[in-house]
Write a structure and sequence with these properties.
The complex is a heterodimer of chains A (about 400) and B (about 160). Chain A is built from 15 helices and eight strands. The radius of gyration of chain A is 22 Å and the shape is globular. Chain A has helices at about 45-50, 55-60, 70-85, 90-120, 120-145, 165-190, 190-195, 205-210, 215-220, 225-230, 250-275, 325-330, 330-335, 340-350, 375-390, and strands at about 5-10, 20-25, 30-35, 150-155, 155, 290-300, 300-310, 315-320. Chain A has a three-stranded antiparallel sheet. Chain A has a three-stranded antiparallel sheet with strand order 6-7-8. A two-stranded antiparallel ribbon of chain A has the order 4-5. Chain A is α+β, with helices and mostly antiparallel strands. In chain A, helix 2 packs antiparallel against helix 3. Chain B is α/β, with parallel strands linked by helices and about 160 residues long. Chain B has one domain: NADH:ubiquinone oxidoreductase Nqo5 subunit (Beta Polymerase, domain 2, 2-Layer Sandwich), CATH 3.30.460. Helices cover about 20% and strands about 30% of the residues of chain B. Chain B has three helices and seven strands; from the N terminus they run H-E-E-H-E-E-E-E-H-E. Chain B has helices at about 5-15, 40-50, 105-115; strands at about 20-25, 30-35, 50-60, 65-75, 80-85, 95, 120. In chain B, the strands form two sheets. A five-stranded mixed sheet of chain B has the order 1-2-5-4-3. In chain B, strand 3 (about 50-60) and strand 4 form a beta hairpin. Chain B is elongated, with a radius of gyration of 17 Å. The relative contact order of chain B is 0.14. Classes of the chains: A alpha+beta (about 400), B alpha/beta (about 160).
């Protein structure tokens, strides 16, 4: 007789920001089998792209994900540039790389916050998301938007980085690096987190290679790959930086890889701002000839892959999009089975499944007296704590 | 390994089983093969040459269905695509490669539901992206797919 119980999670569940359905088969506390059902958010973007012009396609793929809204357009542009043999001006390549690294910074910070939240360590969640703000501000300075930047086009970029903005960006980056240095110490030296995250959800190097895992998931298992170095694009071959790898393959190793990558990304942005030459930012190509092309870039979660086939008209015959989570997700079968059900959450979260997070507070009319800043919110929170203490007494 | 070395290596190994090679640049090449040979090619490229499986793209070329298996070799920076053309659109089938690499697990399910391609030897053909009640024999990424008309009275 089997004593296995089935634990359904989802498709709509407070744990996940996006709908997914997990079926955990558990024997007591131990997970013995797991299956996942996706597709609740399937929007038919590949089919839709066949009915759009190339210029529209780039806006369309930007909307695949609120976090990777720089990665998908760049990969799409690179696929089209691959078909047409389009040269991109040097300055545009630098701006693209800056956008890419800013995106990596804010995505990794977002993940760090969510990971903290999933294991009930909400201090990390609060810190990480607070420290992510300067990055979104820089993104707004560079592109005009915090998310969905509409920055990239075939042959270049739409907006230039103004000279007077460079010092502002550097100032905010200094602020950011100071904050994440403290956060790095707090997370990586915390004995509780070592206990909680080390040795769980291990993805071995052999499995990582067999599943063709990519990005931080592969690098945390000792697979030394990074599209930025191996299939150079943008200006990554002209800049000094390191690929961060860890050997253990557990959740802690994935955390370490992402945190250390933050420092590499800041270094890349600083060098880009320093070395960026003056010049045009767009080569204004006219037509896309018949042919087929591939765009590969290193998104925050791993390689983002676009394949486009053109017949010489203004719309793609076929536009295949492969987001990084598609390759990393199936590894959950190796990492979750055998672990306890309480660890399943953080193991599933450790591959950083792609969340759409585009919400922001938008102040249209600054004259409203009810808008609160950080100090007022903290004061409000302290006041509430005081009221509770007054009512129920110190315990 | 450069692209030329790789292509020479491939023609030495597979000879006449390679139908056509289109070298686009030193980083990219498209290699046309017979669908029946897919396992041999994938085993050699993935296992022996240690390429990474990127993904597979299905393409409806009106006359036939194509599957492009994209592989990247990270140490040398080359990306190649194996193109298998399935001429019988009524009953397109090809051998599974999931017994060589589990990375093809999801993409074969996706190609099955979006293009109607059968993968011989793959028993897990449950829907991945489309809903469970999606009508049988309707493949949305084929060119002859007509999206259902929306009936506003039902909404």
């Amino acid at each position: 007789m089997s004593h296995n119980a089935h634990v359904p999670i989802g498709p709509y569940h407070p744990l996940q920001e996006e709908p997914e359905f997990y079926k955990l088969v558990v024997d007591g506390e131990k997970v013995v089998d797991v299956d996942v059902r996706i597709g609740y958010n399937h929007r038919g973007i590949e089919k839709l792209s066949e009915s759009k012009s190339y210029d529209q396609s780039i806006f369309l793929v930007e909307r695949i994900c609120g976090i990777c809204s720089s990665s998908h357009p760049i990969a799409c542009c690179q696929a089209l540039e691959d078909i047409g043999g389009v040269e991109v001006p040097e300055r545009a390549l630098y701006i693209r790389s800056i956008c890419q690294e800013l995106e990596r910074l804010h995505s990794h910070m977002l993940w760090l916050g969510l990971a903290g939240h999933f294991i009930g360590y909400n201090t990390v969640f609060m810190w990480a998301w607070k420290y992510r703000e300067p990055i979104c501000d820089i993104m707004e300075t560079v592109t005009g938007n915090r998310q969905n930047y509409a920055m990239h086009k075939v042959g270049g970029v739409r907006r230039d980085i103004e000279r007077e903005h460079v010092s502002y960006i550097l100032k905010r980056l200094d602020e950011f690096i100071k904050n994440i240095s403290i956060l790095k110490g707090a997370v990586l030296d915390d004995p509780v987190l070592h206990e909680r995250l080390k040795g769980i959800g291990i993805l071995t190097k052999e499995d990582a290679i067999d599943y063709a895992a990519i990005g931080p998931v592969a690098r945390a298992s000792g697979v030394d790959i990074d599209v930025r170095r191996d299939h150079p694009y943008g200006v990554y071959d002209r800049i000094k930086w390191n690929v961060v790898t860890q050997e253990e393959g557990d959740v802690f190793a994935k955390t370490v890889v992402r945190i250390l990558e933050l420092f590499e990304s800041v270094g890349i942005i600083r060098q880009c701002l320093d070395k960026m030459p003056e010049g045009p930012i767009d080569s204004n190509p006219k037509d896309i000839p018949p042919g087929e092309g591939i765009g590969q870039i290193e998104a925050p979660r791993g390689e983002c892959f676009h394949y486009i086939k053109s017949d010489g008209t203004n719309s793609p015959v076929r536009h295949k999009v492969r987001a990084p989570t598609y390759m990393n997700f199936p590894t959950f079968r190796e990492t979750v089975i055998g672990e306890t059900i309480s660890d399943a959450t953080i193991i599933l979260a450790a591959i950083d499944p792609c969340y759409c997070c585009t919400e922001r507070m938008l102040i249209v009319d600054g004259s409203d007296k009810n808008i609160m800043g950080a100090e007022e919110l903290i004061r409000l929170s302290q006041e509430k704590t005081r009221l509770i203490k007054d009512k129920y007494g110190e315990r | 390994m450069t692209m030329d070395e790789f292509l020479k290596n491939m023609s030495g190994k597979f000879g006449v089983n390679i139908l056509n090679v289109k070298k686009v640049s030193n980083k990219r090449a498209y290699i046309d093969i017979y669908p029946k040979d897919i396992k041999g090619f994938v085993r050699y490229i993935f296992k022996d040459l240690s390429f990474r499986f990127d993904t597979a793209s299905g393409v409806d070329d009106f006359n036939a269905l194509e599957i492009l298996y994209h592989f990247s070799h990270d140490p040398s920076g080359i990306t190649i695509s194996l193109r298998a053309i399935l001429h019988d659109k009524q009953d397109p089938h090809i051998d599974t490669i999931t017994d060589i690499t589990r990375s093809a697990w999801w993409i074969e399910r996706e190609l099955h539901e979006l293009f109607g391609i059968e993968f011989n030897g793959n028993s897990d053909m449950r829907p991945l992206l489309l809903p469970d009640d999606w009508p049988k024999g309707v493949y949305p990424l084929r060119k002859d797919f007509q999206p259902p008309k929306r009936d506003s009275r039902k909404e």
